[in-house]
Amino acid sequence: MSDQHWWALGVLAAVAAGLWAWRRWHYRSFWLVVGFPIVAITVRASWRKVALGCGLTKKRQRFWFTTVPGLVSSTGVIRVKRRFQRIAVDTKPFMWLPLPTRHGWRVTLHTLEGQIPGDYADVAERLAHSWGVHAVRVSSDKPGRVRLAATMRDPLVTVDQLPASTELLKVTVGRLETGGPWVVDFKTVPHWLNAGATQSGKSNLANALIVGLAPQPVALVGFDLKGGVEFTPYAPRLSALATSRAECGGLLDDLVALMTDRMGVCRMAGARNIWQLPPTLRPVPVVVLVDELAELYLMADKSEKDEIAKTSTALLRVAQLGRAFGIYLFCCGQRIGSDLGPGVTALRAQCSGRICHRVNDPETATMTLGDLDPAALDSARAIAAETPGVAIVASQDGQWYRARSFYVSEAAAEYAAHAYAGLAPAWADVMAAQPHELPDSQTA
Ligand SMILES: Nc1ncnc2c1ncn2[C@@H]1O[C@H](COP(=O)(O)OP(=O)(O)O)[C@@H](O)[C@H]1O
Ligand SMILES: [Mg+2]
Q1: Domains in the chain, start-ordered, CATH in brackets?
Q2: At 113, phi and psi to the nearest 5?
Q3: What share of the chain is helix, strand, coil (3-state, %, to 5)?
Q4: Is 200 annotated as a binding residue?
Q5: Pocket-testing residue among 173, 204, 234, 335, ligand 1, by greatest number of atoms within 8 A of Cβ
Q6: pLDDT band at 71; cut points 50, 70, 90
Q7: Which one of 161, 199, 207, 211 would you pick to mutate in the ligand 1 pocket, going by the greatest count of ligand atoms within 8 A of its CB?
C-alpha cells in the first residue's frame, strides 16, 4: 500500500476513535451535532415507507405521469406507454422537521382525513420498531396535529437528581420519561393513590415525600398498619402516627374534627378554602401518608365490621372535603380495588393523582389508572422488576407519563425527619389552632 493509503487509513481511524470518544464522554453534544441530523434525515427519507407499513396512509386520486395498463396490441406485444392519468396513490401524513429532545427527538404530523391521535397511538410500537428507538409516545396539542416523541434509550434506567422544589406542598420526587421533573404538588392535585407490588418502590416514594416536605411548614401524619415498621423511624417529624386499627380510628376522627373546625373558620372569614384566609389565620396544611391502605379495610371477623365502616367513612370524608381545608392524602397500597369494600371505590374517585408502580396483575393497573389510555395499562404491566421506582403517573394535565422516583434511602428520610424534627407541630397544637372568632382587624 502506498503512503497515501496509510495516511487515509490513519485519518479514518483517528476520526472513528474521536467520534467514539465524543459519544462516550459528551453524549449530549454528540447527539445534537452528529447523531440527530443523521436520524432526522433518515426519518424524513423513510417516512413514506414507514407510514405505509404502519397503515397510516390514505388512498388519494392524483394525476400521475405513468404507464397505461393493459396496452396490448393485436400482435401480442405489450406496448409500454406513459401518459398523464388519474390513479390512486398512497399519501402519507405531512411531517414537519424533527426536533431534537433530551433523550431523542420529536416531530409534528398533520393527520389525514378521518384520522385521530388514537390511530397513531395504536401503531406507536410499530413506529418504534421501524425507527429502532426505545419508545414512541403520541400526544396532540391541537386538532389535526399529532406529536410523536421518540426516546432513543430508556431514560429511566438511571435518573439523576433534580434540585429540590422550594414551593410549599410541592415536591420533586423523580423524573419523567420526557426528562422533565416528576412533581407531586398537593395544592394542584390534593389526593394521591400510589399502587404497586412489594419491592416496586412505593415506600421509596413516601421517603422522597418525607424528605421533600420535612423542611416545609406542614404537619405530617402517618397511618402505618404494618405495625409502624415503615413510619416509626420518621416519628420525630410526624405530628401524629397511628399504628393500630384503634389508633387509626382515633386519628381519623381527629382529622374529621379538624376539618369541621377549619370549615367553621373559613365560613366565619367568608373564605372558600384555607388559602383564601389571611396569612395570620391560615392553619398549617396537613399531609396524611397512609401505608398499606388495604389493612384499613381488612376484616378479620364480623365484629370489626362497624369499626371498618366508620374508618372508611371518615377517610372518605377527609378525601371529599380535605382539599379546601388543607388536608391532603397520599395512600399507598398493593391493591386498591373494590374487593376491599365499597368505601374504596369512592375514595379512589376522590384521588385524582394516580401512581402505578410495577403490579402483579392487570386488574390492579386498571384499578389504579382507571380508564386511561390502554397504552398506559400496557406500559404499567411492562415495568421490569429490575427497575424499582419506575411508575406510570397520571395527574393534573390529563396525560400519563412513565416516570422514575429518585432513590431515597430510609436512612436519608430518617435523617431528614430528625434534622427537621423541630418543624413538626405538635398534634394537640394543630387541633387547637383554630380561632373561634376573628381578630378585630378581620371583623372590621
Ligand atoms: N427509584 C428507585 N431507584 C432505585 N432503587 C429503588 C427505587 N425505588 C425503590 N428502589 C429499591 O427497591 C427496593 C424496594 O423499594 P420499596 O420502596 O421498599 O418497595 P415497596 O414499598 O413497594 O415494597 C428498595 O430497597 C430500594 O432499594
Ligand atoms: Mg413498602
Answers
A1: 32-57+92-153 (3.30.980.40), 62-87 (no CATH), 170-443 (3.40.50.300)
A2: -60, 135
A3: 45, 25, 35
A4: yes
A5: 204
A6: low
A7: 199
Q: Give every CB contact of residue 238 below 8 A, 6+ residues apart in sequence.
A: 220, 221, 222, 231, 417, 424
Q: What are the pLDDT digits (tens) for 309-352? A: 888 999 999 999 999 999 999 999 998 877 887 788 889 889 98
- Cα(409) to centroid of ligand 1, in Å? 8
**Residues near 227 by Cβ (< 8 Å), separated by ≥ 6?**
243, 244
Strand partners, 291: 224
| Residue 170, annotated as binding a ligand | no
Residues near ligand 1 (Cβ within 6 A): 196, 198-204, 388-389, 404-405, 407
Q: How far apart (Å, rounded) are the C-alpha atoms in residues 269 and 276?
A: 9
Write the CB contacts of 86 (distance below 8 Å, at least 6 apart in sequence). 61, 62, 63, 64
Please check whether residue 274 is in contact with residue 266, taking contact to mean a CB–CB distance below 8 angstroms: yes
What is the spatial distance between Cα 344 and Cα 348, in angstroms, rounded to a whole number? 6
Is 16 marked as binding a ligand?
Answer: no
- What's the chain's Rg over C-alpha atoms? 29
pLDDT digits 0-9 by tens, 216-235: 999 999 999 888 899 999 99
Cα–Cα separations (whole angstroms), residue 101 to 29, 324, 400: 12, 38, 19
